[in-house]
Amino acid sequence: MDIVELYHIAEQEHVCHKPKRIRCCSAAGCQSSGSEVIKQALVDAIATAGLTQEIEVSSVGCLRFCGHGPLIATDPDDKLFEQVTVADASAIVASLQGEPCAVQPCDPHQPFLQDNCPLCWKIAVGSILNELKRTSQWGGMSRSTMLSTS
Ligand code: FES
Question: Is 105 among the domain residues?
Fold first, then answer.
């Protein structure tokens, strides 16, 4: 197979896509949280709404926020939903039709900074301190020294 054949395959794939797409994480974390059942619920909700020509559902790899799974992403509106349940399927499909959606969104820019999650804060603060230490902005101070002086 050469590059021309690869471009041809990519073009065929692109043409086959429906205008709207729901991406279901099917990696280990979300799969262990029931993502396959949710995917089927989304397919059923699309069929029930009569939108099979407009919306497709695809299994995709890890969407990077495994601790918030099962995760669902929608295109073209580029939304990300966390801790999705079967009961959320029809609302997510409706959101692609412009309906307001009450399903929990996931903020991809601040996934760890939830006020009610002490573990998330601990991980985030640890990452920031490690990055500061790595870039030498805090000299050779140890993490415990940094924490005790603040
Ligand atoms: S396993 Fe689903 S986001 Fe990583």
Answer: no
Q: Which of 38, 63, 106, 112 to mutate to test the pocket of ligand 1 (most atoms within 8 A of CB)?
A: 63
Ligand 1 centroid distance, CA of 123 (Å): 18
pLDDT digits (tens, 9 = 90+) for 21-69: 999 999 999 999 999 999 999 999 999 999 999 999 999 999 988 888 9
Instruction: Mean pLDDT check: name the lowest of 18-22, 47-51, 118-122.
Output: 118-122
Number of domains in the chain: 2
Write the CATH number for 19: 3.40.30.10
With respect to residue 100, please indicate whether it lies within any of the assigned structural domains. Answer: no
Q: Are strands 72-75 and 55-60 parallel, antiparallel or unpaired?
A: unpaired
Question: Residue 126 burial by CB count (10 A; 0-12/13-18/19+): exposed, middle or buried?
Answer: exposed
Query: Does this model's pTM top 0.85?
Result: no
Domain of residue 39: give its range. Answer: 3-95
